[in-house]
From TrEMBL:
Record keywords, A-Z: ATP-binding, Cytoplasm, Kinase, Magnesium, Metal-binding, Nucleotide metabolism, Nucleotide-binding, Phosphoprotein, Transferase
Gene this chain is encoded by: ndk
EC class name: transferase
InterPro entries (alphabetical): NDK-like_dom (IPR034907), NDK-like_dom_sf (IPR036850), Nucleoside_diP_kinase (IPR001564)
Annotated Gene3D superfamilies: Nucleoside diphosphate kinase-like domain
Assembly and interaction partners: Homotetramer.
Top-rank lineage group of the source organism: Bacteria
Presence of the UniProt keyword Glycosyltransferase in the record: no
Name listed for the protein in its UniProt record: Nucleoside diphosphate kinase
Catalytic activity: a 2'-deoxyribonucleoside 5'-diphosphate + ATP = a 2'-deoxyribonucleoside 5'-triphosphate + ADP; a ribonucleoside 5'-diphosphate + ATP = a ribonucleoside 5'-triphosphate + ADP
CDD domains found in the cross-reference section: NDPk_I (cd04413)
Active site as annotated: 116
Amino acid sequence: AGNRTFTMIKPDAVEAGNTGAILDQITASGFRIVAMKMTQMTKADAENFYAIHKERPFFGELVEFMTRGPIVAAILEKDNAVEDFRTLIGATNPEDAAEGTIRKKYATSVGENAVHGSDSDENAEIEGAFHFAGREMF
Ligand code: CMP
C-alpha cells in the first residue's frame, strides 16, 4: 500500500531510448508500478492535460513537444509518493536538478525534461484518471 503519484516518461526520453533505465531507477527507488502503458497524446489530450498552463508563453511549445511521439504513462505507489517522486526526478529545469536525479541524467532543457511527476495527491488522482481506466489500475 502507500499513496500514489502519476508519471509520464516524455517523448524526448522515449526517443532517446531511456525508458528502461528510467523505469529501473524508479522501481529501484521503492516505487511500485500499479498502472503503465505506452501511448501518444493527441493535441486535444495535451491541451486538456496541461490546461492549467494555457496562458503561459510556453504552452504551444509544451503541447507540440508532448504530442510529437509516444510517452510511457504510469501510476506509482509508495509511502509519500508525490513528494518522494518529485525528489527523485529533480527540479523542472535540469540545470537546477540535483546530481543523480532523473532530470539531471536524462533531461536536455526546461521544456524537454524527460519526466513528469504530479505536484499533489489531488492532481495525481486527476492525472491518473486522465490516462487510465479503473480496470487498468492494479
Ligand atoms: P512539468 O512540470 O512536468 O509540467 C509542465 C511543463 O511545462 C514542465 O514540466 C516543462 O516541461 C514545461 N515548462 C515549464 N517551464 C517551461 C519553460 N520556461 N519553457 C518551456 N517549457 C516549460
